[in-house]
Amino acid sequence: MKDKYKFQKIGEGSFGTVYVVRSKSSDKAIAVKAIKKQRFCVKQQLKIDRERTAWRRVSSHPHIVSFIGSFETDINHCFVCDYVNGENLTDFLEINGVLSETQAKTMGAQLASAVIYIHDKGIIHRDISSNNILIDKKNEAYLIDFGLCTFQRRPREFCGTLFYLCPEILQEKEYDAYCDWWAFGVVLYQILVGKTPMDVYLETLMTLEDFQTLPITEQIKIVEEVELTYPFELSEDAKQIIQDLLQKNPEERLSERKIKKHKFFDDVQWPIMPKT
After folding, report:
1. Catalytic residue (one of 74, 82, 127, 145)
2. What do you get for the CA distance between the two ends of the chain, in Å?
3. I need a surface site. Which of 19, 23, 129, 147 has the fewest CB within 10 A?
4. Range list of β-strands (E), the chain
5. Neighbour-count burial of 103, counting CB atoms closer than 10 A to its CB (0-12 exposed, 13-18 middle, 19+ buried)
6. Cα torsion for 224, 207, 127, 142, to the nearest 10°?
7. Looking at the whole model, is its pTM more than 0.85?
């Protein structure tokens, strides 16, 4: 296989290793996510099966990276998907700075449309963060990584990326698909401000490095105490949608059916949803 293809590592983490793979004859690129096998681990196999099923089910959305297939080697479970030529949102903001509100509305609509589609398919993503959003050369956004998704309607499992976790998960209570809208609100804030609310809050307390040395129980207490602050230049509509999404009481959070109708998204062309 290596005689026909060129492999280049483009990402690595607890989720596994991601490679861009190019054909030596055509230079056409795909991406491969390789997850090291855990021997005799039924739980991992169930997780792999769940990720494959969920990703395939939502793959037709224009702002979810398309699933192509999967295979196994002696040491890895592998997922094959379209290659997005760009960087994740974390790196994109680091390189380019914050977006204008016009750009943020377009990108936000792309991501919100993907989240709505995922939920319509009975899936909760549970790990929406700037590291799991890819931005291509046209500044279009794509949601990736269904490794922590669930088909349960009311899970209790503590999982996700700490700075994007809703209060229900932090408090180890039952939660629902609206945990994804909390995380989306954090991402939208990040697109407009350049940092998560937690990053901004930490700047008044300690360095990120000091925070990371604390026990996880102390980290969670600090995350729960965050209060939103906004740059003065943000419009009232931008502030309002973030506030509506980041309501600590989930019953007061912006309802899914009202996302598209929010004033922040006035005059935005929403992506065309694929036919189910």
Report:
1. 127
2. 36
3. 23
4. 5-13, 16-23, 29-36, 67-72, 76-82, 86-88, 133-136, 141-143
5. middle
6. 130
7. yes
Residue 98 CB partners (closer than 8 Å, separation 6+):
191, 192, 193, 194
**Local confidence pLDDT in tens for the 276 residues of the chain:** 555 667 788 777 667 888 888 876 667 889 999 988 887 678 888 989 999 999 999 999 999 999 999 998 888 899 999 999 999 999 999 999 999 999 999 999 999 999 999 999 999 999 999 999 999 999 999 999 998 999 999 999 999 999 999 999 999 999 999 999 999 999 999 999 999 999 999 988 888 888 888 899 999 999 988 888 888 889 999 999 999 999 999 889 988 888 999 999 998 989 887 776
**From edge to edge, which strands make up the β-sheet containing 86-88?**
86-88, 133-136, 141-143
Angle at 192 between CA 67 and CA 11, to 5 degrees: 35
Number of Cβ within a 10 Å radius of residue 100:
9
Give catalytic status of residue 127 as yes or no: yes
